Amino acid sequence: KAGVTQTPRYLIKTRGQQVTLSCSPISGHRSVSWYQQTPGQGLQFLFEYFSETQRNKGNFPGRFSGRQFSNSRSEMNVSTLELGDSALYLCASSLARDTFRNTQYFGPGTRLTVL
Amino acid sequence: AQTVTQSQPEMSVQEAETVTLSCTYDTSESDYYLFWYKQPPSRQMILVIRQEAYKQQNATENRFSVNFQKAAKSFSLKISDSQLGDAAMYFCAYRTGETSGSRLTFGEGTQLTVNP
Questions:
Q1: In this model, does residue B102 exceed pLDDT 80?
Q2: How far apart are CA B96 and CA A30, in angstroms?
Q3: Which residues on A lie below 8 Å from B108 (Cβ)?
Q4: Taking 80 as the threshold, does the pLDDT of residue B41 lie above it?
Q5: Closest residue by Cα to residue B102 from A33, A105, A64
Q6: Which positions in chain A touch B47 (Cβ < 8 Å)?
């Protein structure tokens, strides 16, 4: 079974631009979560989607948004990019939201650099 | 809010030796899960081991085992017979009950070096 895939793997943008990152979960997985990883702040939870609905949201400004499609694929969007948005963005999928006992499996990440 | 603390930013071990990575957490919940993830230079987060809080028995996965002390809120990872491929950043993570969904709270990480 294929793992979690994320596209693109690397991205360079300039301040003020917007960016969209994509995540395809493991087949059959319906929950997708996003995390931001930076050297200064570590790994921080952005949001989680299940059945096209945002279930949980971390403490990030409204410039960060996401959505999930009917096939469980998810996108996250960052508008008006700032230098501090440079980070590794990780996507994780799990089987279902019905129980938190399902393990999350991570994708390889998208490395975003904002110049 | 739940917090996870890894007090060892860096650790090193000789190949074939045993090393223990520490993790403590703070929570008022009674039902939760704890995880150790490994992140090698490729940056791919890989699940190493997980522990259910309601289980008293410590989880083991081949050369990896945990020492779960619920009362002390401690969750350490022991790697036996260390191999060069074990070199990576190790993150301890916590997940609480249904209200938080799949949200993971991570520690700061411990960089493990394995010396040949």
A1: no
A2: 19
A3: 42
A4: yes
A5: A33
A6: 103-105
